[in-house]
Amino acid sequence: MTDGQSQPTSGQTHPMDEHTIAEVERAGTQFNAVTAMTVDRANALTAEANDRRDSGQPPRRLEGIPFAVKDVIDLVGYPTTMGSAVRSDAPAAASAPVVDRLEAAGAIPVAKTNCQEYSYGILGDESAFGRVINPVDPALCTAGSSSGSAALVAAGAVPLALGTDTAGSVRVPAACQGVFGFKPTFGLVPVDGVFPLSPAFDTVGLFASDLGVLTTAFDVIAGDDSGEAPGRGEAFDLTGSGERTIDVSLLPDGDDRARDLLMSVPELTITSANGQVMGELLDDLAPIYDFIRLYEAFEVHKDLFAKHSADYQPGVAKKIESGRNLGEAEYRRQVEALAELRERSLTVFGAADFLLTPAIDGPVVRWDEIDSGTAAKFMRYSMPFNVLGWPALTIPMPGAGSGEGPQAVQLVGRPGGDRDLFAFASRLV
């Protein structure tokens, strides 16, 4: 830990108060995590919340909880910068549905957050605003693309933040900065009002310092109007006919710390039965992901890129350029292959209810240790579940972070089983 840097905190769930804005602004400056403070919006919604309370209305599910918004997601009245110099600074005319839903549940947006330019990069190393600083240790890579949202949660400035995840852009920064990060089942949460990277894989995700807040926020953005979120372990039976199986095929041999997490669920069956199947899936899905992402990202950017290519960050420009000559006919074939792969992959859940994997391949690297293989290591265990569309949760490991950087695992559930995944995760933490 470098002198002058704040230790990240966890478990913050307190509602908005007079100190929140100042703390977010302080952390935003210290960690270069904020592109705009949304004070006017926060003050207006806080006044509405106070009026509700004074009139005797019951508290909503996220009443007064401050949250941050990755700056590729529209928030009414504020520009959406995408971490880029290639942008319009006109304020958004409307908020994305995910923002509207959080606000309707009582949550209060306090900042737009710095991110990898146009979400295009897992390292978080290129933004027109400069890269975000990791609150755990400024020498460590933050990962991306949702770097600033992760940092505000890791710094204890907000208990909740929105990000986007196309190949791990929520879960990997969560792992590198020691917080919870969640990617829902593909298509379950609306992506309207969110600038796309690759629509075949894009999801809106969440960061939080507390699993309960994360669970409630997911229910809200997924459009659940049924009332309070289930309590710890509710709606998930781990006894008798409800016994569950978790596959650890992708955990390295000797990863006892990750397996120790499972000891809190004695009725759980642990298996490695899917090792061969998962290995084949990993081999098959990477080229499908690469082609579709390159093609779609170029299609998204081609008009802007034709006029402003010199104004993009160099690495992002190179990625966009890589999709220029990919043909539509081959793209259609790859989309068909993707559908077939998603169907075939469901056989994994014939032998398991959940998968446990590393969050990233190896330790969190230092900025000065990044090499040509770092991005692939960061995405090795996250990207496959964007391709497959399954829900996945980064869980920070207790006791990790002293001298060796944060450590985390990834819990993966079957498609549409997001709430089962949260209920099971509540038994582990």
Structure explained in plain terms:
The structure is a single chain. This protein is of the alpha/beta class and 429 residues long. The chain has a single domain, classed as Amidase signature (AS) domain (Amidase signature (AS) enzymes). Helices cover 34% and strands 12% of the residues. It has helices spanning 20-30, 39-54, 97-104, 147-154, 171-177, 211-221, 256-260, 275-308, 314-321, 328-345, 374-379, 383-388, 418-425; strands at residues 34-37, 66-70, 108-113, 160-165, 180-183, 203-208, 245-247, 269-271, 354-358, 392-396, 408-413. It has an 11-stranded mixed sheet with strand order 1-3-2-4-6-5-10-11-9-7-8, with helices on both faces. The radius of gyration is 20 Å and the shape is globular. The two termini are 26 Å apart. Residues 1-12 and 226-241 have low confidence and may be disordered.
